[in-house]
Amino acid sequence: MPNNDRGQSLISKYVWVIETIYRAKKITFKELNKRWLLHDISRGVEIHKRTFDNWRYTIWDMFGIDIANENRGEYRYYISNEEDISKNGLRSWLYNTICVSNALTNSQNIKERILLEYVPSGQEHLQTIIEAMKENRVLNISYQSYWKDEEHNFDVEPFCIKLFRQRWYLVGRSTYAYYHQQAPRIYSLDRITFLHKTDQPFDMPKDFSVEDFFFGCFGIIADNETDVERVKLKVNAGQANYIRSLKLHSSQEETERNPEYSIFIYYLRPTYDFLQEILWQGEDVEVLEPLWLRKDITEKLERMMKKYKKER
């Protein structure tokens, strides 16, 4: 238990250093120590220069965040790759997750005022899957699809994992001859009822690329038969503020903005999950292009209208 506390304490200190420098943009070691001593995390003990340098190296190894020094003038410290913190990568996700965890851990006295959402992400399988990926070992899983009542047991070669909308997914290829010749399939971790790492090795395909597999995809549906297209959306001003701060897709570009609405352009595969996202936005979003997508959304809305016009 003491070791875990020490580990958690060190991570909390790393996060504090990153956040303090990130917010200050540039800060001297003297000013950093001054702020450190004002925080409960310091326990009244200042940071020694050698300790701080060791933390900088560890922060680079753990998060890929480079705390550099100007080496002139006031010799202030700053984050040289600040833009990486906002990128959609493993280390930025890890950093953000630890920041949230750290904030919650230090808020036990108001825990009844912090409401969290239950996430059925199947995280109990993550460690085993990651180990199998590292060792290139076949997984044996029992899986019940969302669309089928019966459960199936089979072996799968784990290629990668992806987090989308608070759910973890496994991309893998079945070892059965028929499916092995086809493209990898996607399995939701919360639909896995049993998972076991076998001793059977597999060769990771050298031509498989996660980026290529999900290229142009909106979410978790990787349908290469659906071409990447230019999608043009008209969004009411109020909802545009939300979409502007939380992009629907990494390709999002705002080409027009006025007090009534904004125009957003995307380059993606308009698959089922993207259509669902458009419908979820309701009357605040209108599809302008492509015309086939606008027509498809219109037909779905008409079928919905028929259902709601029926008397109960």
Automatic annotation (TrEMBL):
InterPro entries: CBASS_pafABC_assoc_protein (IPR051534), WCX_dom (IPR057727), WYL_dom (IPR026881). Residues 124-193 form the WYL domain. Residues 228-305 form the WCX domain. Signal peptide: none annotated. Pfam families: WCX (PF25583), WYL (PF13280). PROSITE patterns: WYL (PS52050). It comes from the Bacteria. This is WYL domain-containing protein.
